[in-house]
TrEMBL record:
Residues 670-688 have a biased composition (Basic and acidic residues). This is ATP-dependent RNA helicase. InterPro entries: DEAD/DEAH_box_helicase_dom, Helicase_ATP-bd, Helicase_C-like, P-loop_NTPase, RNA-helicase_DEAD-box_CS, RNA_helicase_DEAD_Q_motif, SPB4-like_CTE. Keywords: ATP-binding, Coiled coil, Helicase, Hydrolase, Nucleotide-binding, RNA-binding. RNA helicase. Residues 489-516 form a coiled coil. It is an enzyme of class 3 (hydrolase). Residues 48-76 form the DEAD-box RNA helicase Q domain.
Length: 799
């Protein structure tokens, strides 16, 4: 095939003598004609091996190489019909070989038409998940290895631009719905004019509400004249679904319609009833007891998978742990998928993206930690083990409130029996988990998200007879996850208050209507609509459910993948409303949607302003007045200029640009003045600081002077900023002259005045110098009371 370009060159050996005549080669179209002629005579009851089918020798060779000798039931029944060109609805248990049941006709059809690269796309295979697409692609590579058709794997998470240029090269495309639609919409190179055959693997999933619009859009782009094959273990028979595909007299092929059970024979199924808070302990104990097994553990949401994986990895259980969920990068997803395929013993924590179609070899156990949303989900999950005549075990963990699920399973021919867990054997890891969370904040947040995601998943489950969020012991559950404080479940609290409000309103309405009715003694339309038109309401609600955006659903369940984000949710949205409980449920959901809608829209200032303008609401303003009663204007908050204030008070709508320019100009003057004032203030502050600093230094120097005796420094008393001469450095005159008696007061005053008279000291600059080996001296540079000063200085030096 085109994708397998590596060719082994044969070693050149010595020339051989030809002993036999070269056989005449039959032309390919002749072979094809012969094969086609045999199509009419295919009788499935006579088919023992693949060779009994009129298949090309290339295909038979590849099948044989991979040990596909004897076809399975579904292969026997459907391959012949498909080769003849029929539309098929194929149903068979999980692991019964449905992939080959459609791949063989695909390869043969293109071969018989001698399909070439130039003809473009001949067959399109659509699957709901990337891993499943990848798996089918790998099987196609195996069985189509001798054919000359090209095949492409078109799934999300890969380089779209690179893919775009190759889209016209593929004869067979295996894809997920979202990605192929992307190419149909925006890639001119891609067309489906020549398409011969479409396959929907896991058809019921592809056709359910999650992919409804995408699949409809894809089908619109396909030629009406084509063959369609649908396969699933839980095949849809919905006329509405099938009408969308415009099938041509489809043939329903059910390989195990009359089988005793819906699930594989080799599968042992059991359930265990435990409380929510015991789940973690049960899982931990289970893993520790099955270290030599290959196990898949299903959870309801990505966040639970992420947390369980991360925290249990740190607890080192002694077995490889892996996680597969929508939020992972595609490279990592493929890596995990392949690694788990190749492992002998490992535990894979997964969401329902791993529930359908995946053929991991040798899985011993499927553990469903959370109850599946319905019987179909159960069938697909357990179908990951006991595949193709192998054995396997499945265990379903149920809460006491989820027992209704058992009745549903039994109704659908699923044999399941109870097993009890010995409580003594349960080892709860919650203390260790708690210690881990205390040390790691990120892990703690993951735990909190997991907790909320689980509660949400229960809340959004469709079947309220099974799932009841209000009975969950969430506090104990949080503790079991290692969370000392249970996270707030805000959405539930909000819903509760909204519901209460709604209930009160409803009651009021009811009362009003009854009053009307009593008063008028007649049935008016409003009254009847309030009480009897539940169906209409529910109809609207249903419509709203359908309108929920993908993004919000992904957010709800923490699934970031564009193809798979629908997997968990949509079915829950498509609610059949019967009776009181479901009506309430729908109402709750509508509230959530409304809330989410409003949440999604960011509230911008512009939007608020628009709203206010629309409603002509004038916002309150705060005015302050000075003691004279005049309004104080804060220039930082409001316009100052007369012109601007006039402009603001104008009532005319719209913006007068010229006037606005003038206003800006006017305001600019005030702004500049404010700026200048600020700079001035800053300078003043700097000066003030400098002065304080100097003062401090001065006093320090003084201290030192006292100790050392003198220092080399200049004091400038002529400081324009100073409030007068700083004389603090001078010694206390009382100490020098002694305290004078009152009679001497005038005399001493006179002396003091002589010394400290500010006018005399105004321009005095005294310089203390300290030269080596010289006595310090004081220079007085202005005439004043020199004698007194000299005397004082000498006295000072003497002391
Ligand atoms: P389904 O799609 O029905 O769940 P698959 O097509 O994935 O099942 O096949 C399940 C397993 O059975 C695969 O590992 C596949 O290789 C194997 N298988 C399918 N058909 C045959 C066959 N005819 N002979 C041997 N093995 C087969
Ligand atoms: Mg399959």
């Amino acid at each position: 095939m085109g994708y397998n370009k590596i060719k082994n060159k044969k070693e050149q050996g010595p020339a051989k003598v030809k002993l036999f005549r070269k056989r005449h080669k039959i032309p390919e179209n002749k072979i094809i004609e012969e094969l086609r002629a045999r199509y009419e005579n295919i009788d499935e009851s006579n088919i023992k091996n693949f060779e009994d089918f009129p298949l090309s020798s290339k295909l038979l060779k590849a099948l044989k190489e991979h040990n596909f000798i004897e076809p399975t039931d579904i292969q026997k029944q459907s391959i012949g019909l498909a080769l003849k060109g029929n539309d098929i609805l194929g149903a068979a248990k999980t692991g019964s070989g449905k992939t080959l049941a459609f791949l063989i006709p695909v390869i043969e059809l293109l071969y018989c038409q001698q399909w070439s690269r130039e003809l473009g796309l001949g067959a399109l295979i659509i699957t709901p998940t990337r891993e499943l697409a990848y798996q089918i692609f790998e099987t196609l590579k195996k069985v189509g290895k001798y054919h000359r058709v090209t095949a492409g794997l078109i799934i999300g998470g890969k380089d779209l631009d690179h893919e775009k240029n190759l889209m016209d090269q593929y004869n067979i495309i295996i894809c997920t719905p979202g990605r192929i639609l992307q190419h149909m919409d925006g890639n001119k190179l891609f067309h489906t004019h020549n398409l011969q055959l479409v396959v929907l693997d896991e058809a019921d999933r592809c056709l359910d509400m999650g992919f409804e619009q995408t699949i409809n859009a894809i089908i619109e782009n396909l030629p009406a004249e084509r063959q369609t094959l649908l396969f699933s273990a839980t095949q849809t028979k919905s006329v509405k679904d099938l009408a969308r595909l415009s099938l041509r007299e489809p043939i329903y092929v059910s390989a195990h319609e009359y089988a005793e059970y819906l699930t594989p024979e080799g599968l042992q199924q059991s359930y265990v009833i435990i409380n929510l808070e015991e789940k973690m302990a049960m899982l931990w104990s289970f893993i520790k007891n099955h270290l030599k097994h290959k196990i898949i553990v299903f959870f309801s949401s990505c966040k639970q998978v992420k947390y369980t994986y991360e925290v249990l990895c740190r607890m080192r259980p002694g077995i490889s742990l892996m996680a597969l969920y929508g939020g992972l990068h595609q490279m990592r997803r493929t890596g995990v998928y392949e690694a788990f395929c190749n492992k002998q013993n490992a535990v894979l924590f997964a969401t329902d993206i791993a529930a359908r179609g995946l053929d991991f070899p040798g899985v011993n156990w499927v553990v469903q930690m959370d109850c599946p949303e319905d019987v179909n989900a159960y069938v697909h999950r357990v179908g990951r083990t006991a595949r193709f005549r192998n054995g396997g075990e499945a265990i379903l963990v149920l809460l006491p409130s989820e027992l209704n699920m058992l009745h549903k399973l039994q109704e659908h021919k699923i044999p399941i029996s109870e097993i009890k867990i010995n409580p003594n054997k349960l080892h709860s890891p919650h203390i260790k988990l708690g210690a881990l969370l205390v040390r790691d904040l990120a892990l703690k947040e993951t735990a909190q998200r997991a907790f909320v995601a689980y509660v949400k998943s229960v809340y959004y489950m469709r079947d309220k007879k099974i799932f009841n969020v209000h009975v969950l012991n969430t506090d104990a559950y949080a503790k079991s996850l290692g969370l000392a404080i249970p996270p707030r479940i805000r959405f539930l609290q909000r819903l509760q208050t909204n519901l209460e409000k709604n209930y009160e309103e409803k009651q009021k309405k009811k009362k009003n209507c009854l009053d009307d009715f009593d008063g008028k003694l007649m049935i008016n339309r409003d009254y009847s609509s309030n009480y009897n038109n539940d169906d209409d309401d529910s109809g609207n609600d249903k419509e709203e459910q359908r309108l929920i955006s993908k993004g919000s659903r992904a957010e709800m369940f923490g699934i970031a993948d564009s193809d798979e984000e629908d997997i968990l949710t949509i079915k829950r949205m498509n609610i059949e409303i019967e009776g009181e409980i479901e009506e309430q449920e729908v109402e709750e959901k509508r509230l959530v949607q409304n809330q989410r809608k409003s949440k999604n829209k960011a509230l911008t200032k512009a939007a608020v302003a628009k709203k206010l303008m629309k409603k002509k609401i004038v916002p309150n303003t705060k005015k302050t007045f000075d003691h004279k009663g005049e309004e104080k204007i804060d220039p930082a908050k409001s316009k100052v200029s007369e012109l601007a204030r006039e402009y603001e008070n104008q009532e005319a709508s719209g913006i007068d640009i010229e006037f606005a320019k003038k206003v800006i100009h006017e305001e600019d003057k005030f702004d500049r003045e404010r700026f200048r004032e600020r700079i001035r203030e800053k300078h003043r502050e700097e000066k003030r600081k400098l002065k304080a600093h100097r003062k401090k230094e001065q006093s320090e120097n003084e201290d030192e002077d006292e100790a050392v005796g003198s220092r080399d420094e200049t004091y400038n008393t002529d400081d324009s900023d100073s409030d007068g001469a700083d004389l603090s450095w001078l010694p206390d005159p009382d100490k020098i002259y002694g305290i004078k008696t009152p009679s001497n007061e005038t005399e001493s005053d006179e002396a003091m005045k002589k010394i400290y008279k500010p006018s005399k000291r105004k321009l005095v600059i005294m310089k203390k110098t300290k030269e080596k080996n010289k006595k310090p001296k004081i220079e007085v540079t202005e005439k004043g009371d020199l004698l007194a000063t000299e005397e004082l200085a000498l006295e000072l030096l003497r002391n």
